[in-house]
Amino acid sequence: MAGAAHCSLQAKRLLLDPKFEGYKLSLEPLACYQLGLDAAVAEVQLHDDQYTLDHMRAFGMYNYLHLDSWYQDNVYYVDQFGRIMNLSVTLDTALQKPREVFRLPSDLTACDNRLCASIHFSSPTQVTLSDGTGRLYLIKSGKRGNSASEKWEIMFNEELGSPFIIAHSVSFVKSDTNSLAVLLLRVEKDELDTKGSGFHVTLEWVTIAEISKEGVHKYEIIKRRVLQGKSVPHYAAIEQSGGGLMIVSHKPFKFMESESDKLEENDDTKILNEKKDPLYYWQQTEDDVTITVHLPQDITKDDIKVHFSPDNICVTLRDQPPLMEGKLYSSVDHESCTWIIRENKSLEISLIKKNEGSRWPELIVGDTRGEFIMDPSQCSEIAESLMHLTSEVMNPNPEKEKPPCNAQELEECDAFLEDGASLCRFDGDTLKVTHIINLGSNPYLFSVVVNPREMPCFCLRHDVDALLWQPHSDQPENMWEHIATFNALGYVQASKQDKKFMACAPDYSYAALCECLRRVFIYRQPTPLATVLYNRKEGRQVGQVAKQLVATLESNDPILGFQATNERLFVLTTKTLFLIKVNSGN
């Protein structure tokens, strides 16, 4: 990932509440409605050869309920007869039965290795659909959620190889051509992986465009690109312009290149692997830095120009491009810096540190052409300073003022299982990573569509809180914006060992999670109190309170789908669709 910009997520302080006191359990009743389904949900059980954690994450924990973010309170699911069923809610007390809007042409039961059918809503009038057997459909739906205007018609369908699920899709216009990009997820056998799980994960990025031939408009695949990784991504989404891709994953993904690209890359690798002598050597003490540069035989003192400034250095030989140039790691007293030519035809430069005592990890920021030489006394000094961190016994000196960290003091919810997680942005033209963020201490929680015309948001744990981030692919300086905070949700969700799905309202008014069976937990944002309440410990008035609500479903069937809107939670089990009224409409 050389050349990628290493970025960081910048939380907005105004959206954080350091004085948050926790959630108060509320016993207020929640209106819960249920609809019996005419036919069971088309749940697909994992096969015997789908035994890895990646199979469980991708297919075993699949959300069978699909929310249409373009239209309010509009959900879909696929039943065992291959029917796409829709429920559109306007009034909770006058619920209609789910209605059929489309039927998959293929017989789902005929395919032995099929996956669950998947749906994604690319635009207000377009839907991408997979039947789970390896066939992709592009549907023109009309205005959805309305029986009068909603009519699903197949615009494109093609067999694309082994079974997949749709991870994301977007509709866009490029060069006056209607186009659609779809991201397909597969977990495939890897014959070369003899030490790992024996599988790898692929994301196929398919671009479909409307092409006019002899006056006839039809959709065709114009580009297929494949990324490969060793873990199922937590989040994978195509930018709204179709020009890039963002992935949050535990292990990195990379594009699988053509043979010509591979040959070119091998040549580059050979050049990089050729042993090169360092351009310069440098040493440091607490007060100064010494740089040594070997000079060509014909170079004289008059050919050398060394320019010092408080934060930069520039060394040139004759009229050639600068030999060394760039920003120094830390400031120097440039008026006291000197240089001389030694008898062995080497240039020796002395820099006087402005901040005495500080150690420089590098000389010129980002320059890897030099080599740092540490003298033996510095080595022993550093080893001695780190001695207290290592020992052959668990806790050699428990009475010491600063004892080593005891892992047994950590709670289970403080453990980060996926320290290697990262967020990467890939460019669609170069197929290279342009931005990368290490998410080691910020585990992924869930994703949500706040605005269907933007990329999906993702929620990460930050300390005890859960922070919601909105990607802006068209704003390089503000590519990931912190838009909402769910106080203490990072800590709370970690204690729910049986949790299956998490979600939040698009207006951030609440977050919710459900367990595998029956129970749903709702966490409202803090709201002002109607009465005066005092914190006795601190002797201050409490102005607002955040409430936790719990709903228990009247069903013993496992929860298969979970979606949140501003007013309602939709919970899908094998034979029932539940609606929980969380907020009243305006």
UniProtKB/TrEMBL annotation:
It comes from Lepidothrix coronata. GO terms for cellular component: cytoplasm; nucleus. The lineage of its organism: Eukaryota, Metazoa, Chordata, Craniata, Vertebrata. The keyword Metal-binding does not apply. This is NudC domain-containing protein 1. Its main location: cytoplasm. InterPro entries: CS_dom, HSP20-like_chaperone, NUDCD1. Gene3D superfamilies: 2.60.40.790. Residues 275-364 form the CS domain. It is found in: Cytoplasm; Nucleus. It comes from the Eukaryota. SUPFAM superfamilies: HSP20-like chaperones. Keywords: Cytoplasm, Nucleus.
